[in-house]
Amino acid sequence: MFKKFASSFRKFLALLLLVGNGAIVQAQNNALVINGAYINVSGGTWASPVYLVVNNGTPAAITRTTGAIISESEGSYVRWITAHVAAPTAYVFPFGFSNTDYLPVTVHKTLVGVVNNAGAIDMSTWASPNTNLAYANTVTAMTGLGGATAVNSVIDRWWQLISLTTVSGTADFTYRGVENTTAYPAGPFSGQEWDIPSTAWLTATGTGPGVVAGTATVTGVVMNEVGLGVSSPYILSATVAPLPIELVSFTATCKGTQTEIKWTDASETNVSTIELQKSDDMNTWTTIYEAAPSNQSTTTNYVYTYQETETNSLYYRLKTNNLDGGADISGVLYHQPCNSPANTLSAFYSNSTLNVLSHFSADDKVTYKLYDIQGKVVLTGEYIAGSGTQLLTFPVDELDNAIYIFRAESSTTNYNQKIIIAR
After folding, report:
1. pLDDT of residue 148
2. What average pLDDT does the chain have?
3. Tell me: the pLDDT tens digits for 312-357?
4. Which of 74-78, 269-273, 339-343 bottoms out in mean pLDDT, i.e. has the lowest?
């Protein structure tokens, strides 16, 4: 009896260890119980994926108390053969990073009319550098509205979802605080899905907090009729819903003490008015200018110049009012008022990068140095300050975990900021 049990156990263990090219991992009764273990699904690529398969359609088919499934590459999937559902049903994919942070993905699956939506859902997730390179397969662009880019507005993590049958519902995505290297770390954040036919990011949905320590979850991200075996890469972004116009640029600069705001549209469709709004807290917004759209497929340039009386940091966005009565909001543009003193500097470490937001007087020559705790200079350089706030990034992956002092100075101003590098 013992030999028979030992033989069966060895076969089961072999399956767990066969996480490699083309391997399938299954547990007893087609269910998986994770209690303190970490299952590493690795070695998969987009061209040659690997799968951990759960051939049980109930939400209880994966049960987790502690531990996690580690994916951390685009082609290393958990394939869950889900069941037909007639009511909202939550499937929790218990992902984790290394053996530390728990990063579950919850798919809230709903009925699609009378269609039987039973079928496999492939899910993977992986961390990325603050440029989000390499992009998930099928993604060709990481720029968005309001000057949003992979560097300044996107959490440094990807999610990939593939389903052979149509899946409708929402998803909740969890990320690590250290992956929040955006210019808007306080959030909130939403989810965006890459649409292959239009080669564009779809409207941002869901909401969740911004954190730089621990983990945070963005809930309610809409799955836009995922199915037919088409990949659906997702990101979490500080931007909100894209405009029904192709926004090429959105900038704010200083003209003396006046603020000049420009934006350029490559095309516009069914737009009634475009409102330029400002806020000092990203909660209460005031319209300061209203533009009449061209509604043409050709490039349209807009300029608005005004005298700002406030001296605190301001945020700008575009509200596009559609002819059908709806409205869309652009990404947020940060700007230090032109009549304010050059008096800000904020520096922080994240993901092997030193990030510095500085505001000096335009055309000032700024010298910066990074000192270790013994006072030794480990990084130095200089730059010419532009108008408004500048984001500077420095790779510091060769530095040890320790406390450092970042110092930046011009002919009139100097700042010191303590930096903690902890990986």
Report:
1. 61
2. 79
3. 767 788 888 877 676 777 766 767 677 655 456 767 776 677 877 7
4. 339-343
Q: Which residue has the tokens 């055309």?
A: 363
Pairing type for strands 365-371 and 377-384 reads: antiparallel
Q: Quick check: 271 and 295 in contact, CB under 8 A?
A: yes
CB 124 within 8 A of CB 74: yes
Q: Three-state SS across 282-293?
A: CCCCEEEEEECC
What fold, for 245-335? Immunoglobulin-like (2.60.40)
Contacts of 59 (CB under 8 A, 6+ apart): 89, 90, 91, 92
The CATH 2.60.40.10 domain(s) of the chain lie at 245-335
**Class of 344-421 in CATH:** mainly beta
* Domain ranges in the chain with CATH number 2.60.40.1930: 344-421
- Do residues 135 and 160 lie in contact, with contact meaning Cβ atoms separated by under 8 Å? no
Instruction: Return the closest-CA partner of residue 336 out of 361, 313, 315.
Output: 313
Report phi then psi at 339, rounded to 5: -95, 5
d(CA 412, CA 385): 13
